[in-house]
Write a structure and sequence with these properties.
By secondary structure, the chain is of the alpha/beta class.
């Protein structure tokens, strides 16, 4: 499943979608066509993308359902109870900045759909600090590149444990799902010499559905990236050791 199709599938029925940095209104138009949302607020920090989105909306006949706003993140946005917030196509640090600056508005949203292009770990760190719950992490594959879509809401309990360093890097919900798959497929992953081999065998299991195969591919990619840095950085070596222990605890 490609990135925009996955994002569209993650958005629940709502009265209004607020799309920050709208990517030329591709997702809003899809949602309006299938009736998922009644209206859309399309925003961007720059005028150019808003004008492109406006032209596409007009051509599709949905001008009546859309409003356009040039603003930085949530600065001039007035959400109401039940809106859904989408921030996609931006770097993880930029999305983190937007939700941190707009923290007073987040409780009004029914759901937050966040799709960072880079530095997912920085966004997870921010989500972990804020009163947000990370409900799920789903991975899209597009042109051999992996994209994580994070689904959140404003419901964190003060007693919830903070997520660990390896969860920040690999994704707590992704790890939770892979842990379940490892337990189910333990016969196929037992006697593996290392975590990389265990993940490769898990991915080769015919019972693994595509959405989980994408999660495994994401973890494999992250593992290899950290492994390349590990020869130079002690923190990365420690991350790999922690992840290896986690893998073998689930086999």
């Amino acid at each position: 499943m490609d990135r925009l199709t996955l994002i569209t599938a993650c958005i629940p029925p709502c009265r209004r979608l607020i799309d920050i940095g709208s990517d030329h209104a591709t997702v809003p138009l899809s949602l309006l066509r299938n009736g998922t949302c009644e209206g859309v607020l399309i925003t961007d920090i720059n005028e150019g993308p808003i004008e492109v989105a406006r032209l596409r909306v007009e051509a599709a006949g949905f001008t009546y359902a859309c409003r356009f706003l040039q603003t930085d993140g949530l600065d001039d946005v007035d959400p109401v109870e039940g809106d859904v917030l989408l921030i996609s196509g931006l770097g993880g640090e930029n999305i983190a900045r937007i939700i941190e600056r707009g923290i007073d508005k987040l409780s009004l949203f029914k759901r937050l759909i966040l799709q960072p292009q880079t530095k997912e770990n920085k966004l997870r760190e921010t989500i972990n600090r804020l009163p947000l719950s990370l409900l799920d992490e789903i991975v899209a594959v597009e042109d051999r590149r992996l994209y994580v879509v994070m689904i959140c809401d404003f419901s964190k309990n003060a007693a919830d444990d903070p997520i660990s360093e390896i969860q920040i890097e690999f994704g707590p919900k992704i790890m939770e799902r892979i842990g379940s798959l490892l337990r189910i497929s333990s016969r196929k992953t037992e006697n593996c010499a290392d975590a990389r081999t265990a993940l490769k065998r898990l991915s080769a299991d015919d019972a693994i559905v595509p959405i989980d195969r994408s999660r495994i591919a994401y973890v494999q990619s992250k593992y290899d990236k950290i492994a390349r840095r590990a020869r130079y950085h002690q923190r990365d070596r420690q991350l790999l050791e922690s992840f290896d222990r986690w893998i073998f605890n689930h086999i």
